[in-house]
Design brief:
This protein has 475 residues and is α/β, with parallel strands linked by helices. It is built from 16 helices and 22 strands. Among the domains are: 135 residues, Rossmann fold (3-Layer(aba) Sandwich); 56 residues, Nucleic acid-binding proteins (OB fold (Dihydrolipoamide Acetyltransferase, E2P)). β19 and β20 form a beta hairpin. The two termini are 41 Å apart. The protein binds S-adenosyl-L-homocysteine (SAH) and FE3-S4 cluster. FE3-S4 cluster binds next to α7.
């Protein structure tokens, strides 16, 4: 497995505003996608009202929560290893309780309590509001579990406690679940059916972030372009809504415009877009607003029509190219990134070549690339043999990664001598004399600090670059 989000973000420890009077200590860590990191902020908020402040020291925790990822086998193995570590700590601190949250909790359910003796608490992604009750059970010495998926839970009424924050950028979740049923993917099983959050509560959260000094938000969902608010409930039940509900429904491009209008000085990002749902009006809305960042994460998974079909991706290679052409026409400065999978069942050398040639067509700015990992319960696992040998998957992945590296370099170099706008996020990891931030296109740029401050949007003249980072001077 190469360069996965799981790996880049793995095990970030989280700090939060401490609430006075809280005496219990919560150690919470997250693995996997941005949605998990965002969910941990919701959990921290719920537990803050139950007397918990977070700690960064595992050894002193009363409660340890791990927010887990099931997307690939390796992600699950990482969590199992963490549980071993918790086990060692529990020998020193026997009163410590351990809970598993997120996708593994949902996938394994009671099996977790049977297989991992250390686990006291298992809570699926839609059941976090039940945490106070579940903890009361645990306090009385019983194991507790809630993995019920919901039709309407969006946590729209919870004000997340920002964890591990730079005070500049924050995630705001807008949809939960996914209805796409890509045949390789476990998410529809672990996160349930798709539902959207009330736009009013989204705008309120953004207002609150703006008032606290945040300068950039990322609207989050498994498939943001499929956002549809019609008063609550599952997306699939929209057909049954009243005429009134249908007439006043809010889709993604309208939501995007509402967010952009709410604070013209605030940058808006979104992730992830599924090609089949990304419409022209979203691209046009991006063009109409300066503060909507010009970057689209557009996972394609494969360049072969036969494999796309077997994956139940509901578009062809040609339709994907047409979409890319539209993005390039309407938003010439937009960056595009990918997710790709090598070695899906039955993938031939020709299918793999189709993936490489698709990459040549798009020349993505960056991407996240993986070998196929069979997930229990998915259509692919039930209907197809995982028949591409591991070494073939790895070799194809290496070729994909190599091609991406070349394209990233071409894309990054093209910024040399241009002037870009950078939102300063933090000190550069390489030098304490430099700031690090991102351009609208989501490319990292570093430059001398001078008198500038974190949270400022500055114009930077790019003079040099590495394969993924721009180097310049604020002007
Ligand atoms: N729509 C989601 C996708 C979540 S999964 C989003 O918001 O990003 C992220 C990526 O993991 C997918 O795009 C896919 O490339 C990869 N992935 C999912 N299931 C996988 C599997 N079984 N094996 C390998 N990679 C997988
Ligand atoms: Fe998974 Fe496909 Fe949804 S990758 S999250 S089923 S869009």
């Amino acid at each position: 497995m190469e360069k996965t989000i799981d790996e880049t973000k793995q095990g970030e420890h989280l700090v939060l505003d401490q609430k006075e009077g809280n005496t219990r200590k919560l150690f919470i860590e997250s693995y996997g996608c941005a949605m998990n990191f965002s969910d941990s902020e919701i959990v921290a908020s719920i537990l803050s009202d139950q007397g918990f402040n977070t700690t960064q020291h595992l050894e002193e925790a009363d409660l340890v929560l791990v927010n887990t990822c099931s997307i690939r086998d390796k992600a699950e193995q990482t969590v199992r290893k963490r549980l071993e570590k918790y086990n060692a700590v529990k020998r020193i601190n026997p009163k410590m309780k351990v809970g598993v949250l997120g996708c593994m909790a949902e996938r394994l359910k009671t099996k977790f309590l049977e297989e991992e003796k250390i686990v006291d608490l298992v809570v699926g992604p839609d059941a976090y509001k039940d945490l106070p009750n579940l903890l009361a059970e645990v306090d009385e010495g019983r194991d507790a579990i809630n993995v019920i998926l919901s039709k309407d839970e969006t946590y729209g009424d919870i004000s997340p406690v920002r964890l591990n924050t730079n005070g500049v950028s924050a995630f705001v979740s807008i949809t939960r679940g996914c209805d796409n049923m890509c045949t390789f993917c476990v998410v529809p099983f672990t996160r349930g059916r798709e539902r959207s959050r009330d736009p009013q509560s989204i705008i309120e959260e953004i207002n609150d972030l703006w008032n606290k000094g945040y300068k950039e938000i990322t609207l989050l969902g498994q498939n943001v372009d499929s956002y549809l608010w019609y008063g609550g409930g599952l997306k699939k039940d929209f057909e049954k809504a009243s005429d009134m509900q249908k007439a006043t429904a809010v889709g993604f491009s309208s939501l995007l415009a509402m967010c952009a209008d709410a604070h013209p000085e605030m940058r808006i990002r979104f992730s992830t877009s599924n090609p089949q749902d990304l419409t022209l009006d979203v691209i046009e809305t991006m063009a109409a607003y300066k503060n909507i960042c010009k970057h689209i994460h557009l996972p394609v998974q494969s360049g072969s029509n036969r494999i796309l079909k077997a994956m139940n991706r509901l578009h062809t290679r040609e339709e994907y190219f047409a979409l890319i052409d539209n993005i390039r026409r309407i938003l010439p400065e937009c960056s595009i990134s990918q997710d790709l999978i090598s070695g899906f069942p039955t993938e031939t050398e020709q299918d793999h070549q189709d993936t490489l040639s698709l990459m040549d067509y798009v020349k993505y700015n960056f991407g996240y690339m993986f070998t196929y990992s069979e997930r229990p319960g998915t259509m692919a696992e039930r209907k197809l043999d995982d028949d591409v040998p591991e070494e073939v998957k790895k070799r194809r992945l290496a070729e994909i990664v190599q091609k991406q590296r070349e394209h990233s370099e071409i894309r990054t170099k093209a910024y040399i001598n241009s002037i870009v706008e950078v939102l300063i996020e933090r000190e550069s990891k390489k030098s304490s004399n430099e700031w690090s931030g991102r351009t609208s296109q989501n490319v990292v740029a570093v430059f001398p600090k001078k008198h500038y401050k974190v949270g400022e949007l500055v114009k930077v003249k790019i003079t040099d670059c590495t394969s993924a980072t721009l180097i310049g001077e604020a002007i």
